[in-house]
């Protein structure tokens, strides 16, 4: 009897050490659960390295694709910058300007509200023509004197015709540009052509026998260059002077003596 009990105890102990019975017909409920769980655990350990390798591969591919897109965008941006630079280099420039452009805006010499200076706008964004003529007045050599002359031209135009100063810009003997009607407004000369594609620049003074000072010519060039830079004047603009048949033939002769040598010069308009 003792031997039989000892054998049963050893058999029970062996079953506990190895829950999965080698005899399929004697599997207990505990043995079935153990038999289901053990292969799953082994399967997870077996395939985990493959999943990690696949994730790392996908991440590498995504990183490579992102770097490729960023590189392509960088080359595209560089190409655009080079194209714009080459385009700007092809824009004809009148001349290198060493004299700085100095604009005295209208509100400096015109103290009335801006609403009272409403004029007809130009129909074209960039004008094609520039007409230069003298004001047939005294010459000024400092800003205070030039402002006084510009105000006088404004008052004369208002008293005679009920209109504002007819010039788009005026060039003073102090080497500064005085804003009249500006870049975006029609000039006020009824006897001059190009009402919608021309700006008129007046050179303050009378230059029948005396040539303007070098600083005035330099400021005219600075004004033209600035007009192109602001896209208010075509780089291929045409430059004209004025011949008035009712005045002596030498009217403004000294003013045009140098301007006629400039590259954009096209001749005179007759009034």
Strand order of the largest sheet: 1-4-3-5-2-6-7
The H-and-E topology, N to C, reads as HHEHEHEEEHEHE
- Radius of gyration, whole Å: 45 Å
Helix vs. strand class: alpha/beta
Terminal CA distance reads 147 Å
- Overall 3D shape: elongated
> Total number of β-strand segments?
7
Give the rounded overall mean pLDDT.
Answer: 80
Strand content: 5-15%
Q: Determine the fraction of residues in helical runs and give it as a percent range.
A: 40-55%
Number of helical runs? 6
Unreliable segments (pLDDT under 50, ≥5 consecutive)?
19-35, 40-45
Detailed description of the structure:
This protein has about 270 residues and is α/β, with parallel strands linked by helices. It has 6 helices and 7 strands; from the N terminus they run H-H-E-H-E-H-E-E-E-H-E-H-E. Strands 1-4-3-5-2-6-7 form a 7-stranded mixed beta sheet, with helices on both faces. It starts with a helix and ends with a strand. About 10% of the residues have low confidence. Belongs to the N-acetylmuramoyl-L-alanine amidase 2 family. Keywords: Immunity, Innate immunity, Membrane, Transmembrane, Transmembrane helix.
Task: Record the SSE blueprint.
Blueprint: H1 2-17, H2 29-89, E1 103-104, H3 106-109, E2 127-134, H4 143-161, E3 169-171, E4 177-179, E5 198-203, H5 214-229, E6 233-243, H6 253-259, E7 265-270
Parallel strand pairs: 1-4, 2-5, 2-6, 3-5, 6-7
Antiparallel strand pairs: 3-4
Family: Belongs to the N-acetylmuramoyl-L-alanine amidase 2 family.
Transmembrane segments: 64-88
Domain Peptidoglycan recognition protein family: 101-246
């Amino acid at each position: 009897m003792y031997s039989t009990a000892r054998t049963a105890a050893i058999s029970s102990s062996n079953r506990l050490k190895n829950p999965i019975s080698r005899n399929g017909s004697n599997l207990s409920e505990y043995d079935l659960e153990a038999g289901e769980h053990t292969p799953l655990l082994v399967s997870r350990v077996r395939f985990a390295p493959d999943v990690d390798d696949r994730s790392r591969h996908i991440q590498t591919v995504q990183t490579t694709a992102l770097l490729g897109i960023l590189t392509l965008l960088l080359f595209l941006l560089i190409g655009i910058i080079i194209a714009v630079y080459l385009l700007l280099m092809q824009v004809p420039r009148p001349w290198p300007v060493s004299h700085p452009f100095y604009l005295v805006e209208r509100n400096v010499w015109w103290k009335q509200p801006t609403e009272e200076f409403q004029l007809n706008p130009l129909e074209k964004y960039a004008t094609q023509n520039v007409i230069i003529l003298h004001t047939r007045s005294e010459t000024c050599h400092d800003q205070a004197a030039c402002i006084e002359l510009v105000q006088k031209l404004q008052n004369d135009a208002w008293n005679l015709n009920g209109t504002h100063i007819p010039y788009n810009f005026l060039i003073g003997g102090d080497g500064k540009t005085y804003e009249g009607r500006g870049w975006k407004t029609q000039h006020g000369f009824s006897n001059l052509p190009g009402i919608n594609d021309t700006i008129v620049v007046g050179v303050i003074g009378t230059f029948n026998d005396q040539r303007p000072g070098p600083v005035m010519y330099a400021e005219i060039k600075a004004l033209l260059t600035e007009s192109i830079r602001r896209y208010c004047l075509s780089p291929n603009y045409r430059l004209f002077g004025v011949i008035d048949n009712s005045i002596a033939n030498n009217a403004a002769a000294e003013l045009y003596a140098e301007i006629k040598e400039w590259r954009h010069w096209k001749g005179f308009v007759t009034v």
